[in-house]
Amino acid sequence: MAVFSRPRQALMLASVLGLAMSATACGGSDDSKNNSGSGDCAAYEQYQGNDGKTVSIYASIRDAEADLLQQSWEEFSDCTGIEIEYEGSGEFEAQLQVRVDGGNAPDIAFVPQPGLLARFAESGKLKPASAETKTMAEKNYPADWLKYSTVKGTFYGAPLGSNVKSFVWYSPKMFAEKGWKVPTTWAELMTLSDQIAAAGTKPWCAGIESGDATGWPATDWIEDLMLRTQTPEVYDQWTTHGIPFNDPRVAAAVDQAGQILKNPKYVNGGFGDVKTIASTSFQEAGTPIVQGKCALHRQASFYANQWPQGTKVAEDGDVFAFYFPAIDPAKGKPVLGGGEFTVAFADRPEVQAVQTYLASSEYANSRAKLGNWVSANKGLDINNVKNPIDKLSVQILQDQQTTFRFDGSDLMPAAVGAGTFWKGMVDWINGKDTASTLTYIENSWK
């Protein structure tokens, strides 16, 4: 669910050194040197020739995070003379369509849904990425990511920020006291769940209530289990309706998730029975861990911002997360996640320069140094990522064994992915059987 793909929290804004510099100081360029923040304009030579030009960017990123975003390209602007006008909106998806239809499209947008990106591309509204942007993106991002911004063979823009959803949150202190070990396989995870339940604690806590978006956390469970019970190719077929939603392989994944979510011995720690999952807000769902009332909570990296104030998120802290185990680790490391893509509605030289820069390792490192950010950019230096859960996320994304797939509901038509899929999961948690639930969703896609 893209609306939750970006964390929200009060941040201590980092200072950026060496911002006041002359564009004439620029010399040679090498994308691998990560010169951003060095007070040297050498990294920006290829973007010169656009002094005095303005590029508008529109996205859903707001508040303190938007402040960090604007800091991240200040040196680029100072060195190239390109002014970037940024606007963030909580109504981004709806308003972007209005602006485009009204002939008032931004130069660049950060689009978090590949399905929305494809719709703009197929309507002819998006501009194909320049050769320079494509080359930069192919250098810095895995092919698993670039396919989501490629429509009918045309590449439209690189990824920007990312998040990892395949995490299970836990209390390192509780695990140490109880002698529990972090599981590395699905079988070990289930054995651990049985061990915790036998000790008198509900091992899992969960919550899928989210206002008008109630149900989305359960869809993440199904997506993660589709990646673990099936091949990546079957997952792709499922998200594009290449196989029906009520295919037996989808049912198998749902039932696998149900081994935890619909097991009264496992859930819902700190809240009640299985049905309380539907009425427990996703923001509060993990808090019983810090209260000692449950041990495990499956949720994305951005959940780091939902813990009570003062909670230390670290491997030796109050809470941390481990990778949601694969069923067969020999087949690789399936990872579910999300992010946004930098696409353009204009192809002026200065717009192309900004789009190319945002795909570079210089930009990724500039943004990472300010904190609270994750990217799949292969040129991102892990030493520039300070937050422990962000660092773990980057390590997973950069792992050669990782097979990444985008949030499935964001790839589906909105009426399904953000409609019947959400509602169907609520009904399923409340007692509806798997076959009827999946047939209901399948019929809505037809």
Automatic annotation (TrEMBL):
Keywords: Signal, Transport. Pfam families: SBP_bac_1. Residues 1-25 form the signal peptide. Belongs to the bacterial solute-binding protein 1 family. This is Carbohydrate ABC transporter substrate-binding protein, CUT1 family.
